[in-house]
Amino acid sequence: LGLVANKLVDEYKRPAFLWGRESAKTIKGSCRGPDDFSCIEIMEKSGDALLTYGGHHGAGGFVVSDEKIPELEINLNNVYKEILKEKKEAIG
After folding, report:
1. Average pLDDT over residues 45-53
2. Which residues contact 80 (CB under 8 A, 6 or more apart)?
3. Which of 27, 55, 62, 70 is the most buried if burial means most Cβ atoms within 10 Å?
């Protein structure tokens, strides 16, 4: 997942969060981000959708339960938009 996420970041210049089945009840994911976005910040602000997460500025991993996938997708998109707005406001 990490390799594919890297390619998406390179192509679209946006954070990429990918996930796949880990067990019957959980999904495991990987994320990568361009230099100007912190994967950790995005995961921290995504609410309680993630069971666990970790990593560093440019890359990370996470676990989410099946029932939280729709919520996670919405939260990640909202956090991304919020961070973009903050960056634009900081620039002026």
Report:
1. 92
2. 14, 15, 37, 42
3. 62
Query: What are 50-91's pLDDT values in tens digits?
Result: 999 999 999 999 999 989 999 999 999 999 999 999 988 888
Alpha-carbon span 27 to 18, nearest angstrom? 10
Distance CA 64, CA 68 (A): 7
The 10 Å Cβ neighbour count of residue 52 is: 11
Residue 14: name the closest of 29, 31, 30, 27 by CA.
31
Question: pLDDT value at position 47?
Answer: 85
Residue 57, Cβ neighbours under 10 Å: how many?
Answer: 12
Which structure tokens are listed for 41?
A: 């910040």
| Chain Cα centroid distance, residue 86 | 17
Q: How big is the chain, counted in residues?
A: 92
Mean pLDDT of the chain: 92
Question: Which DSSP symbol is given to 34?
Answer: -
